[in-house]
């Protein structure tokens, strides 16, 4: 990647700061989207930014362009590729011009320093393909969970064994060259579930992925998700990822984790007998995997435990199931 601002090693001036492109896929969340866009436009980054709001399977809201200001151009466009998150993200990436590309979901919020600190990190370490950041989970009545980044450079082994929450889709900033070596988002991924994780697995195979250790984004867990109550979609996507990434299956702990997630999804969809079989496979891989035991609770409890309550409880103790 060519580093803007000369070769002296000095930080670039404001006029030399590289263009940052932001891609925000959206569907059916106009009020939340406005809050998300406000947090992006209000960044203290001294360089220029362009924000592509990609409407997926809905009409383009041209009025969003009025949120633009000097060095902050908001561009509403329609998803011109496969319907869903992957096609929407790819539409934005391909329309963008920045040296760095950041992604944000349409219900999450950025802290004012996010873009500046991540650009500084990527300029300081050009070998990084992408960086995330610490997050704050907004759990509604259940409170707030702070999740600072653990590693400034995330080992691939950890990524195989854990989704690594600080590499959330709303924290990622990538160099444009990252898409050249890792590819675009996989539009064949069933239902688009886990598209950021799939991309990170590919990126970490060919380069380094890191994180800014401080908390730079608020992730809403108190609003409905498109994947809520679509457990079989989640199971389909996870099976696809296991087939696509053989190293996930080879890693004992990583394989057990994903099997536990599949079992949980099947159990919450009412397929408890099938889920129990998957739990057995997972326990043979790693009998102490937390996701497997949470899935077993879902199998045994059946409809007596509401799935979202289990998810919230797991996040509060530091173990998500998604």
What's a concise summary of this model?
The chain has about 325 residues and is of the alpha/beta class. Helices cover about 40% and strands about 20% of the residues. The chain contains 12 helices and 9 strands.
Task: Describe the protein's architecture and organization.
The protein has two domains: 16-220, Alpha-Beta Complex (Spore Coat Polysaccharide Biosynthesis Protein SpsA, Chain A); 231-316, no CATH class. With 322 residues, it is α/β, with parallel strands linked by helices. The protein has helices at residues 30-41, 85-95, 114-124, 156-161, 176-182, 195-206, 231-244, 246-250, 252-268, 272-285, 290-301, 307-316; strands at 20-26, 49-55, 72-78, 100-103, 109-110, 128-138, 144-147, 173-175, 208-220. It has twelve helices and nine strands. Strands 1, 2, 3, 4, 5, 6, 7, 8 and 9 form a nine-stranded mixed beta sheet that branches. It is globular, with a radius of gyration of 20 Å. Strand 1 (20-26), helix 1 and strand 2 (49-55) form a beta-alpha-beta unit.
